[in-house]
Amino acid sequence: MMMRNIWIKMLIAMLMATSVYGAEREKTTSVWREDFDISDDCAVQNIWPAGWALKATKLGVPKTTFYLMKDTADGDGWLVVQSEKSTGGLLCNPSVKVDLKKTPILRWRWSVQQLPEGGDGRKAGKDDQAIGIYIGANDWLMKKTIAYRWETDTPVGTNGESSYAGIVKVKWQCIRDKNSGIDVWYVEERNIAEDFKKAFGFIPAQFALTVSGNSQYTKSRTLAKIDYIEFVAAKRGNEERKLAQRMEK
Questions:
Q1: The pTM is what?
Q2: 178 plus 193 within the same structural domain
Q3: What would the pLDDT profile of 64-83 be if each residue is shown by its tens digit?
């Protein structure tokens, strides 16, 4: 019995070590990543990485400005999102490389410098955000989208729904608000496969990713930055822990 317990403890230790090692590797391995690198030390208006395009604009409303900027302190590039009574989004298609069933985790680093005054996603007349990340997929005649937004007055943890032109349905989450601070950088992680399936009942094979900024309703000015966006595998370890628990019984 004593020898059996010793072997069990050794096996559990090996499984835990394997799980930790695998998790550490997954932290640094991405199948798709955008670093927003730029070669110049100054801002370049309307210069975006290859594969990105300006979308989600509205007739008669100014377009939100997107441009690359280099951090002179460490050389990293940023995507700057600047809106002034405007709307718009910068769109790309990561699904050419990303299989959400294998690499479902979206990770990004962002910061805001100026929020839309009085912005509140719960109110149609104040539905502005300095920055938001949208994942959208076509489903028959409707485009279905989930969104992670940095709100102003909307409390963190709030979920909502919006519809645009009758053909775009958005289910959004507020994950930062005015209480998160100005000029503070945050790294976020979301399981897109789980969130999309919970919202719409399926995991899209083809999807688009959009970075947006809006201030059209509050008639204000906003400023935000995003350092990088990437897709990585989910962390492992649950199955190993379950096996270890069964063996200890």
A1: 0.81
A2: yes
A3: 999 999 887 777 899 999 99
